[in-house]
Specification:
Layout (H helix, E strand, L loop, with lengths): L6 E2 L2 H11 L6 H9 L5 E3 L8 H4 L6 E5 L2 H13 L5 E5 L11 E6 L10 H13 L1 E12 L25 E8 L5 E10 L3 E12 L2 E13 L3 H10 L2 E7 L13 E8 L1
Parallel strand pairs: 1-10, 2-3, 2-5, 3-4, 5-6
Antiparallel strand pairs: 6-12, 7-8, 8-9, 9-10, 11-12
Helix pairs in contact: 1-4
Length: 267
């Protein structure tokens, strides 16, 4: 249960659990296909602890994985070393000011990660920064959720931490998963959506030998964008949409879809 004295943590504290929380593979084939189109260099930002990087680096291209949290980057480096992967360069960078001084054929911000930027101005700054790092003719993917019911009923289009069919504002028990040391991690959430953002309040419990050893809370807020609004933001940054998809099967976006995967390039 969430109580006033429960520890509150942020992304930096969650790094040691992140790979257990986020292990979905719904978009991997989508990015494999984009790399296969001829991308000779890839930038993923933000990358977390390597949900995508450890898989997509297997395509054999130089793969740069960046995140604003140093502890996420350090964990990714360790995991890459554990797997013997040598073509991942993991580095600390902010989407709004990437600062890598080179360009990439494919840049992508996966699964609502772009929506963690809290304000529109910051989002436009991020688009400018990504454009500066995009090769001529390159592809930039921004993957956005509308946090609404999708008419396709394809579960992959929804974030794995949000279900529009479940109650808003109530505690929802999500899952119990094993940790490498044999302990168990339990997660529950409260989900709410308003006109500006989706808010997810997490509650965690770590159990050892049948007993509760630690519990803590965390919150994420994800900015919402309308189709025309984001298209205009991209134009402001000197980008244009080549296509917009509603899923990871390259299905064209249509009004009412709950996901907008923007495929952008230089205007």
């Amino acid at each position: 249960m969430i109580t006033a004295d429960t520890l509150s943590v942020d992304y930096s504290d969650r790094a040691i659990y992140y790979e257990v929380e986020y292990d979905e593979a719904v978009d991997h084939d989508f990015y494999r296909a984009l790399i296969a189109e001829g991308a000779e260099s890839v930038l993923e930002i933000p990358c977390g602890t390597g949900r995508n990087a450890l898989v997509l680096a297997g395509e054999g291209k130089p793969y740069t994985a960046a995140d604003i949290e140093p502890c996420m980057v350090e964990r990714l480096r360790g995991r890459a070393a554990e797997h013997g992967i040598i073509n991942i360069e993991a580095c600390v960078a902010d989407m709004r000011r990437i600062g890598l001084n080179r360009q990439f054929d494919l840049i992508f911000s996966p699964r609502e990660a772009f929506q963690l930027i809290p304000d529109k101005q910051g989002a436009i700054e991020a688009l400018h920064s990504m454009k500066a790092h995009l090769s001529p003719g390159g592809t930039l993917i921004i993957d956005l959720s509308l946090f609404a019911k999708d008419p396709s009923e394809d579960p992959a289009v929804h974030p794995d931490y949000f279900d529009p069919e479940l109650p808003m504002g109530e505690m929802i028990a999500e899952w119990t998963r094993g940790l490498p040391d044999g302990s168990k991690l339990k997660r529950a959430r409260v989900q709410t959506v308003d006109e500006a953002a989706a808010n997810i309040h997490y509650h965690y419990e770590r159990w050892n030998n049948g007993g509760l050893s630690r519990n803590w809370n965390s919150k994420i807020t994800l900015s919402l964008y309308a189709f025309e609004e984001f298209e205009q933001m991209a134009a402001t940054a000197g980008l244009q949409a080549v296509a917009v998809y509603r899923d990871y099967k390259f299905t064209p976006y249509e009004a009412g879809s709950s996901r907008m995967v923007f495929r952008l390039t230089h205007a």
